[in-house]
Amino acid sequence: MKLLFFTLRNWAETDEPGDAELSNIVLPLTPDETLRRIEDVVRTLPCWRVEKADAATGEIHLTRRTRLFRFVDDIRLRLEAVPGGTRLRGRSQARLGFTDLGQNRRNLKALVAALRQSGRTGQIRL
């Protein structure tokens, strides 16, 4: 039943039950530093783009296009100041279709992995 649920939707969120990789993502940076780091990381990811970033509200809108058919997924992030850093909450959603075959979950995991990789060369530890 769980597999059916994950294959019959076109979105994914951080903090969903059952996925430790996407839960409780806290970066040891201020919200402004986190926003700049995310913008820098997204520029290195192929087919990804920063559409809008608002430091005042801590919201970021990213898009990712598929290579073959150029479908667009919207990734919306919210940065929340917490003790010890900034908590990252996010949702990735396909613009078309009833199912994404897990692509939106992979979008969020790719972003988190890229942030972790940038931490190895910088100061982020997730």
Features of this protein?
disordered C terminus; Alpha-D-Glucose-1,6-Bisphosphate, Chain A, domain 4; 126 residues
Task: Describe the model.
- The protein is of the alpha+beta class and 126 residues long.
- The protein has one domain (2-121): START domain (Alpha-D-Glucose-1,6-Bisphosphate, Chain A, domain 4), CATH 3.30.530.20.
- The chain is built from three helices and six strands, in the order H-E-E-H-E-E-E-E-H.
- The chain has helices at residues 2-7, 31-44, 103-121, and strands at 11-13, 25-27, 48-54, 59-65, 72-82, 85-94.
- Strands 1, 2, 3, 4, 5 and 6 form a six-stranded antiparallel sheet that branches.
- A hairpin with a 4-residue loop joins strand 3 (48-54) and strand 4.
- Helix 2 packs across helix 3 (103-121).
- The longest helix has 19 residues, at 103-121.
- It is globular and about 40 Å long.
- The protein starts with a helix and ends in a 5-residue tail after the last helix.
- The relative contact order is 0.24.
Q: Which CATH C-level class is it?
A: Alpha Beta
Structural class, by secondary structure, is alpha+beta
Strand fraction equals: 25-35%
- The rough form would be described as globular
Mean pLDDT: 89
H/E topology pattern? HEEHEEEEH
Q: In CATH terms, what is the fold-level topology? A: Alpha-D-Glucose-1,6-Bisphosphate, Chain A, domain 4
CATH architecture: 2-Layer Sandwich
Oligomer status: single chain
Q: Would you count the extended β strands for me?
A: 6
Radius of gyration: 14 Å
- Output the number of helix runs: 3
Q: What is the CATH superfamily?
A: START domain
